[in-house]
Design goal:
The protein is α/β, with parallel strands linked by helices. It is 49% helix and 12% strand. The protein has a four-stranded antiparallel β-sheet with strand order 3-4-2-5. A two-stranded parallel ribbon has the order 1-6. The radius of gyration is 18 Å and the shape is globular.
């Protein structure tokens, strides 16, 4: 994580800020591991947020222009709000740690699961979930791109869903290495705790519109923004609709700020908007001029 941009001062500075907020050395964890600790959601989420904002700060330092609109996938929504000036980074780091803990504690270990279904359209995946649930929770939770949908819910239901999806013609159905069934209705208890925590968080109106996951809309009322953040925990991430909304607003280029190229790849599958992922100096050069 961050190897391609580690030489930029903004990277270490941002991780130092995050580490101070949490009282833990996130940069050391990212660079040295151990992986099993970094993969715990209570560490993964703050590290991802720090990576997003560190990259964003490098982008600004390289004379990157302010976007017309922003969006983030799941946790990335919080990063987008920070970048849009709605949320202080230190507050966002603490908020993200609380979010991760609430999600981890909402469902006992081994009860929930997630899986990626490849090669079925959204309606077919919804039908699979309805049939395989059998009284348990099983829902499409990440509508990532055409033919790529993540399902989540009770572990046994997810296993039934993977098997049924293959029977219905899915190219692949892969379990994801997580125990938290993110964005499913099993996250309602986490959302309730998160909503209560958000009441004490200082949130400002974003200087740039931020399309939020639950509604694919940008809001200017901070109460509504907080409500959308809370509902996101038990609502699907509507990424296909988000990218389509960007295209509908006339956006001609996207820049991904974060530790990888996942969203750039999804954008390419959804729409023809050029999208550059800022993973190294070569990518940074493409945004200049």
């Amino acid at each position: 994580m961050m190897n391609g941009l580690a030489q930029h001062a903004e990277i270490k500075q941002t991780f130092d800020e995050a580490s101070a907020a949490l009282g833990e050395d996130l940069w050391k964890l990212v660079c040295e591991g151990p992986a099993e600790t970094l993969n715990q959601t209570t560490f993964t989420q703050p590290a991802m947020l720090a990576a997003d904002i560190a990259t964003w700060r490098v982008y600004l330092a390289q004379d990157g222009e302010m976007p017309a609109v922003m969006a983030g996938h799941s946790l990335g929504e919080i990063a987008a709000l920070v970048a849009a000036g709605a949320l202080d980074f230190t507050d966002a780091v603490k908020l993200t740690r609380f979010r991760a803990e609430a999600m981890q504690n909402a469902v006992p270990e081994g009860v929930g699961a997630m899986a990626a279904v490849l090669g079925l359209d959204d309606d077919a995946v919804r039908a699979v979930c309805a049939e395989a649930a059998q009284g348990e929770v099983l829902e499409p939770v990440n509508l990532n791109s055409p033919g790529q949908v993540v399902i989540a819910g009770n572990k046994a239901a997810v296993e039934r869903g993977m098997a049924l999806a293959k029977e219905k013609g899915a190219k692949r159905a892969l379990p994801l290495p997580v125990s938290v069934p993110s964005h499913s209705s099993l996250m309602q208890p986490a959302a309730d705790k998160f909503r209560a925590y958000l009441e004490s968080v200082n949130l400002r109106v974003p200087s740039v519109p931020v399309l939020q996951n639950a509604d694919v809309q940008a809001f200017t009322d901070t109460v509504v923004i907080k409500d959308a953040l809370a509902r996101q925990l038990h609502s699907p991430v509507r990424w296909v609709e988000t990218v389509q909304a960007l295209a509908g607003q006339g956006i001609e280029r996207c820049v991904e700020c974060g530790p990888g190229k996942v969203l750039a790849g999804l954008v390419k599958r959804i729409n023809d908007i050029p999208c550059v992922a800022l993973v190294d100096d070569a990518a940074l050069q493409t945004i200049k001029g």
